[in-house]
Amino acid sequence: MTYSSTVPSRGAGFTQVLNAEWTKLRSLRSTWICVALTIGLTILLAYVAGSGNTTDANDFGPQRVFSVQLVHQPLTGDGSIVARVADQDVTGPDAKAGLMITAPVPAPGGKEGGDPDPRYAAVMVTPGHGVQWQSGFSHTAAGSSDPAPRWLKLTRTGSVVTGYESVDGVTWTQVGTNDVTGLPTTASVGLFVASPPTGLKSIRRSPTAIESSPDYTLSTATFESVGLSGGDGVPITGAWEHLDTDGAPRELPDDNVAGSFTEDAGRFTVSGAGDLGIQPPGFGADNDVVRDSLFGILIGFISMAVVATLFITTEFRRGTIRTTFTATPHRGRVLAAKSAVLAALAFLTGVAAAVPAFLISQPLLRENGFTPPAYPTVSLTDGPVARAVVGTGLVLALLALLALALGAWLRSGAAAITVVITLVVLPLVIGPFLTLEGEAWLKRTTPGAGMAIQQTRERWDDVIGPWPGIAVLCVWVGVAMVAAAVQLRRRDA
Amino acid sequence: MSVATRTLHAEWTKVRTVRSSGWLLVGIATLTLGLGVLVAASVRFAECAPPGGECLVDPTRVALSGVYAGQVAAVLFGVLVVSSEYAAGTMRTTLVAVPRRWVTLVAKVAVVGGPVLVAAVLSVAVSLLVGRVVLPVNGFTPANGYPALSPTDPATLRASVGTVLYLGLIALLSLGVALVVRHTGAAIATALGLLFVFPLIAALVTEPRWREWLTEWAPMSAGLAVQATRGLEAAPVGPWQGLGVLAAYAVAALVLGGVALEVRDA
Question: Which run of H or of E encompasses B9?
């Protein structure tokens, strides 16, 4: 006679396992204490980040920059200059090579040299923005969107200066024209080159001292068929002089940015750094106010790591794991269920911490000078901000899973907590002792790389993109989970 | 044998016979030495000195930087001596055997501090030796203003002795934390948090006043101020003064732990 139970088999259903694990997790008082601590610490850190950061980025209002390499000679009265920009190094979208007429400039007249004289007009080619016209900083106009090679021409009639461009040096198109009031009768006219820095570069002089400076690069341009003529069309053949108005002192190695000028059989090669035009306020202000306000989650994680590891190591210590495995013989399923409920709790905790952290820190940061235009106001509904806030929950969930997997693998709460906290936090503490590349490598390869999800603007110390960072963390979690699953199957409970 | 000697002997037997103790002491030594070697091998003189400028890297600090990893093992050692007794229930036996609880506390301080100091002396000495050999290879030569590391230099000697004491104090601080918290996981997280949280906060704020305050009063950065051999004028806290701050934390934790041991049920 065979017997079969009339009670439907329910033990194996995943929902039941999930429910069982959720009951274990939620009925521990320590779970909720640690969740509260995680949220509290993150918010506290947001408060600290909000109050402990100040900036004066907006105090450096729009700045006039007249830092160029000028190859010039005097022109009295009306006249015009023509040249073909044969070639220009692409050192950034705003590198400039072109023709200029200006009131005589004292050298150096760069931004360190006080208020430069705005009585100038220039027509130039740029690699990224085509042909441009500038006069007295305030007047600009755009020509065609083509880069070098290009013919350029500048003519002076009275105090009116006009810039032209041409493909062939025969048919000319006007780019811009202005009445340059105050342009003296004898003005300097010639070729100029500038190349604004496109980023920052840094060196580490000691673990606590990093120096950053704009990444100056020389752009070299070649001018051909340079022709200067007077108002009557008669060519003028004077001596060309080189003037460097980009004399700002620079401290970092490799700042070899001294401009130069050579002439060889009518080919003028001019190279230089610097810029011409208005620098917007807050130039170089690159604090990530979103990341700063959410970074505290890493400290909240220390508390979450305790919940996550103990969720499984306590079962080994108390022996309840045997009951658990008797109820659900498929051990991988137990690990999956534990992962699911823990990840859900950690994700919600992370988001619940990130939203108030963001909301509390932003007004504090605004009070401390992080205001437009240098720091545009950010809101939770901005794409990158939402990604950072939700990503904070994601990072906390993944880190919790890493802690759980280490706990299941090592079966010792002490070992797992120590290992996970050390893996995540120690690279940040020891990083400053390494070279900048060494530190970047460490931050890129350790689980903390996931924190990159909080980045909302480009910064010089970014080591990895938001989603690649999450991918690195996922690899850590995956490897630890596989090791844990294998160990759970192989070893007695 | 007096009560003190017997208690000390009993505590030493407990520490000596637990397998994790030996591993953790080896861990203190190897982590300190290992990370120190890695950092010393990775720094380059050429990358820190602008032409005509001064490199601000402190070679002694670099050679002894392994302590950042070694202290993790010291934390574990200090915590486990207490918390494993609470977890296994042997604390009740211990307290029955030695009813004067503070005697047990003093004995525990001795059996935690002593072995940690021995492991620390070994690893610090070898780290210095490695730094002496490796740093000149990376450009930290006398010609560049970096004489070879030597314990005969008073500042280097101070940094070395201070680092040994630092590791001992960290273990005692953790012992005190464990007496208050009792739970292994929570005690480890609390002790590591106490060490690592402040540097992370310091990295987050730009306000110089806040940074200075955090360096001056956080147990790790204050304690490791004792490693400084250069730029002492600019340091927010003096070498011994900084180690004193850490000692104050350790004493406070031990006093709190002692009070908890006296007044609470085991």
Answer: helix B3-17
